[in-house]
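Ticket closed. Logging final result for Putative secreted protein (Por secretion system target).
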Amino acid sequence: MKKRSGIHRDAFFIDTTFPYSFFRDVYIRRFFLVSSFPKLTFLRYFFIILFTSFYGLTAVAQRKCGTAEVIQQRVNENPRLLQIVQQNERQMMLGQAQRAKVEAIPQTVSIPVVVHIVLDDTSAVTYNQVLSQIDVLNRDYNAANTDISQVPAVWQPLIGNTRINFCLAQRTPDGEPTSGIVKVKTAAGQSFSINSGAADAKYNSTGGSDAWDHSKYLNIWVTRLSGNYLGVAAPPGTGFPEEQEGVVVHYTAFGTTGSVGRVYDLGRTCTHEIGHYFGLKHIWGDDNGGCTIDDGIADTPLQGDNTYGCPTFPKLDNCTTVAPGVMFMNYMDYTDDACMHLFTAGQVDRMRYVLENITATLMTSDGCVPPILVANDASLVSIEAPSGKICDTRINPVVTIRNRGSRPLTAATIWYQLNNGPLTSYQWTGNLNPLQQTTATLPPANVAIGSYNLKAYTQLPNGVADENVSNDTANIRFRYDAEARLPFKQGFEDDSFPPPGWDLYNPDRSFTWERSRDVGRNSNASALMRNLGYNTNGQVDDLITPVLDPQNSDSVFLFFDVAAAVYTDPATASPSNPWDTLQVLVTTDCRQTAQLLYSKWGANLITRPKAVQTEFVPTVTEWRRDSVDLTAAIHQSKFQVAFRNISNSENNIYIDNIRIVTKEVNPTLREKGILVNPNPTTGVVWVTFYQVPEDLVQVSIYNAAGQFIMSRIAKEIGIGNRLTFNLVNEPNGVYFVKLIYRNRANTIKLMKVR
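Final structure:
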């Protein structure tokens, strides 16, 4: 994944503060100690030394938290977020000041936690390891940790107690029993970048685990982070999408047992990251060693930079030069787990303000309360189809029903209704054990052009009244648009986007195609994909045309204007650099399958040759006209065209002046299936097929004496179902075009004249 402002491009898991010379010297000294050993003994000893040396370097790697870096990165990429972050900080400063004036002891609250274990080996993080982390949080956030006595006497009066307890969730967002742990298996060795708060770990669609409702649960993702980072938080109020809010912790720094590593083995990484979640900054203010920026907390001493290891008290620095020095044992510093001991009362005031005003719904969540299952409860979980844009007037509703009761579910009535129309019923029978689900296809219906709300609900589970009607109903919206005919054009001049009848596919609900005002090729607008700000690699976004009817046209062609640029210099880029990609696909079955007809990236796509580190806006001359032959892909069927962007964080792509037109085939070609023209010819000859025969092997040309002149194989047939032959250097006269099939042959006479 590409990383820009605020993110280390070259981060190593081995701590780079240990120079190469250190390892070299260790190796040389030990080499001479064993140089008199037999060869096999030496090799075995060498590999032991190699392993232990690297292990030692890894074990002492310094703590790295990515929270401040990620927030700065997001601001750099979207300057509008700076106002949100600054306003959030002002609110917290004001709120914590007001709380400090209140002498009342805050209410003790319990916050439900869901732990998403996203690893190639999910068993590496055990249930006991998760419990150990919850225990650490409950002690640290209630000043009940046994090592709090190690806080120096001068700061003992400043120790704060948040009175926040944490529990593993006892019920799911749907009200079912749960362990509070979700396990998702990744590819072997997969790690996640901290970009956007390790966003890829937070979506099923990108190999992670979807968050539970952020308003009711604190989401913690435990995974493998790349770049030697131990954790990263996505705090509320700082511009992260709601479903990304929460914290991510490297699996070897989570809890106190199981797969936990060395040094960061007391669960304080999670304590630290949840501090960020509730509004705390690093204690040194992230000003890179300066004394100009504070953490916004009055009772934490001004501190120049982070602290590693386990210093001796007092520790002085360039910002606090007299005793008692800096508060290196604060949970928001970078010291070893064994040397982290406290939050201050000022930090507690800020965290309680965030809890009670920004994340207040966590305080009233019932996630810590185990659910009680009733006997008969048929839930309609969702409507699977139809949804979005449909391509046919006939619908077959498909729903998912779930048995949320304690008794097996063997029968239920399912009803559905379109808009305010009549009800349609379906009698479902089967055998669902408690907390199991299945799909059911309901009776079909026909729709006209328009938009619809489909409502479905269940009744009479096992023939008796449903004991929990709150989960019986689901709704979904869909639409059926009028088909379009050819010729078809779109210049995105109207304000609506996507245009009427068009559709968007945006699976990550982030950046996608949009209308760009005042940027177009000889026009006032275009369709734009902002890849520069879309700092997530490999994401797919489609802009999809209406259903088009070719009306049995012989040939169909797509033309469009494109403008694109890149962030990475093409002249110096690595051959493996992941570029933004623009593709054109055709579907004839309402996007169930698609055929790729056009794919360009990097130097083949861009219209400005030089790299652009700011947002690319094309000039009048920085557009190119591209075309695609759709004929073979549509087979004279109704079809849609998808313009697909695959983002790799380069720069903007624009498309404009889309035209899809038909071209009639020569009547002779349609009648005979093959045409050799021009005939007579002055040199260049085209052999064109109406449809390429599956059994064609090759096409050869002979002169009147039967001498072989040239040949082309069937696989060389190109755009327009055409083979090209050049007879310019051949003498005038009679020639024969021989079409060789697997079990037959055909010959066509050809004349060459000048």
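The domain at 488-662 is CATH 2.60.120.200 (Jelly Rolls). No further action required.
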